[in-house]
Amino acid sequence: MTGEFFERSVVLILHHDEDGATGVTLNKPMSAEVAAVLPDWQPHVTAPGVLFQGGPVQMDSAMGLVSVPGGEAVQAETLGISMLFGGLALVDLDVPPPVVVPELAGLRIFVGYAGWGAGQLEAELVQGAWYVVEREPRDPFHETADFWREVLVRQRSSLSLVANYTSDPEQN
């Protein structure tokens, strides 16, 4: 996908149905620490301890994405956790951290999200605007700046060659 925000973005799709899709961009750290907006959560977030821009939609909202060991076995409603898939969940950021934190293995807070209307993401996939790859369990909490490239390099297909693509063809 091209464009200022989505170029070289790694997007985790959180929900997809006939009405559309929502996700968060995993590799867009912001300069603001979590403490700037949610000071009680700062000690509990996964390094580097900053907010991440989840997407260009609703930049006035925050979403906590967490890893929950044991996944579905956790009493999610009691703890303020809404399970998604594969041990990932959304955490209610209005719940006091001590109630939820003992159940978590990772936490990242995203400002905004990526969203697609009905059929929009499917159309972009048909156009070849996105590469679709399997996620690894720690992907949502990855720390390095070159995450887009690392995701491509680990692919066991010719897609791994794209990792060396330059945005300026003159540089090839």
Walk me through this protein's architecture.
- The structure is a single chain.
- It is built from 4 helices and 8 strands.
- It is 13% helix and 31% strand.
- With 172 residues, the chain is of the alpha+beta class.
- It is globular, with a radius of gyration of 17 Å.
- Strand 6 and strand 7 form a beta hairpin.
- The protein has one domain: VC0467-like, CATH 3.40.1740.10.
- Strands 1, 2, 3, 4, 5, 6, 7 and 8 form an 8-stranded mixed sheet that branches.
- The model has no long low-confidence stretch (mean pLDDT 88).
Strand and helix layout:
Elements: E1 11-17, E2 20-25, E3 29-33, E4 50-53, E5 57-67, H1 76-79, E6 81-85, E7 88-91, H2 97-100, E8 106-117, H3 120-126, H4 147-153
Parallel strand pairs: 4-8
Antiparallel strand pairs: 1-2, 2-8, 3-4, 5-7, 5-8, 6-7
Question: Unreliable segments (pLDDT under 50, ≥5 consecutive)?
Answer: none
Give the number of DSSP strands. Answer: 8
Average pLDDT, rounded to a whole number, is 88
* Tally of separate domains: 1
What is the fourth-level CATH superfamily? VC0467-like
SSE succession: EEEEEHEEHEHH
Family: Belongs to the UPF0301 (AlgH) family.
GO cellular component, one term: cytosol
Protein name: YqgE/AlgH family protein
InterPro entries: AlgH-like (IPR003774)
